[in-house]
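Hi team,

Filling in the usual template for the complex we talked about on Friday. All components are listed, including any nucleic acid strands or ligand strings, so the model treats them as one assembly.

SUBMITTER: L.P.
PURPOSE: interface mapping
COMPONENTS: two
RESIDUES: 226
SEQUENCES:
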Amino acid sequence: TQLLEQSPQFLSIQEGENLTVYCNSSSVFSSLQWYRQEPGEGPVLLVTVVTGGEVKKLKRLTFQFGDARKDSSLHITAAQTGDTGLYLCAGGGGTSYGKLTFGQGTILTVHP
Amino acid sequence: SAVISQKPSRDICQRGTSLTIQCQVDSQVTMMFWYRQQPGQSLTLIATANQGSEATYESGFVIDKFPISRPNLTFSTLTVSNMSPEDSSIYLCSVSPAGTDTQYFGPGTRLTVL
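RESULT (copied from the run log):
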């Protein structure tokens, strides 16, 4: 069984601070997705990374896929209140075609 | 990306009744999935909805409790049968375009069972 350990589970910060969320596994994934979910909505895809060592930037968000494709990180610079939400990482390309392995999620609260 | 709609968006149901949730996609997709989520927590996969054949259920989920239909490549339904308060949750459908692992999610159905 593939597992993705996501940390931290909760993050409460002030506007303007930086933060990093981590996803780690002992398994290799062919891709890693990051989602953000707000209350009352479904998860929204932020990024997909597929190459070991890949770094993608989306405005103030930086996503990195580990060289061995076993881990990933999401770094947010100068957090804003609009960044508040549940962040989920998900690994693809495991033992079952098409299915994703989800991390436990990180609830981020950014205070004004 | 695909545009996915779900009906209903929320419902309050009585114990012992059943609710059918619909998922509609704006384009044909091979893979469709049904998930359950407690607020603020991660997603638990219920089953993969297969077009033209029986759904593939994950451990802990059975067809009698969660029958799924997939009549074509753009539509699926999930029924939550003989509901109890423990079934209160958010139910989400997702789709995965051919050749990718990426999934796109519907807005979810928030179910409360009294």
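MY TAKE: Residues 19 and 80 of chain B are 5 Å apart (CA to CA). The interface with chain A takes residues 1, 4, 30-31, 33, 39-43, 45, 48, 92, 94, 96, 100-108, 110 of chain B (CB under 8 Å).

Thanks, L.
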